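Reopening this one. Same input as before:
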Amino acid sequence: MRIITGKARGLKLRTPAGLSTRPTSDRVKESLFSILGGLIDFADVDAVLDIFAGTGALGLEALSRGARSAIFIDSATTDIIRDNATRAKFFDACKILRGDFRKILPRLSRQTTFDLIFCDPPYAKGLAQSSAELVAELQLLSTGGLLIIEHGANEILSVASPKLSLLREVSYGHTTAIKIFSRGQSQHCGS
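Same output, byte for byte:
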C-alpha cells in the first residue's frame, strides 16, 4: 500500500499487523482518485474527513494531491495513522482522533464542515449505512462537498437525504463497491 501521486508519491504506508483492518487496495484507490480528479480540484479542498481511517491512506492521498487539512477517525489504528502522516510530512495538516465515530461526528458537526468525506468501514456490519446516515443528518458536508462510501458489494446502501445526491456508483469485482454523493450541486468547488 502506497501513496499514488502528489507530494508524497510512492511512499509505502505502514499497515497494521493481522487482518483486523482491510485497507483499500491500491487498484481501487487509484480508480477512485481518478474519478474524484474529474469531479474536484484537490487544491480547492480545505477540509477532508477520513472515517474508519485504518492506515490513513485515503486522507493522506487527498493531502498528497493538494488538500489543505484532514481529520482522521479510527477506533484502533491512530498510532499507524500518526506514523504514516509523519513519514508523508503531512502531520501538521492532520488531526487524528481515536474513538467511536458515533460520538466524534456530532462534536465535529458543531465546529466545521468538510469538502471531502471518506467512509470506509468494515464490510457487512451495517456501518456503511449508519455512518452515511449520520454524516447526512449532521450536515457534515460543505455545499458541493463529496461523500465517498466504500462498502461490500453485497451490502445495500441507501442514503435518503434531500441534501445528498448520488453522483456515481462503481463496483470492483464481487467484493467492493463505492458510492459518491454530493451535497447541493453536481460538481464540487470550482469544477
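So the earlier flakiness isn't reproducible anymore. For the record, The longest strand covers residues 141-152.
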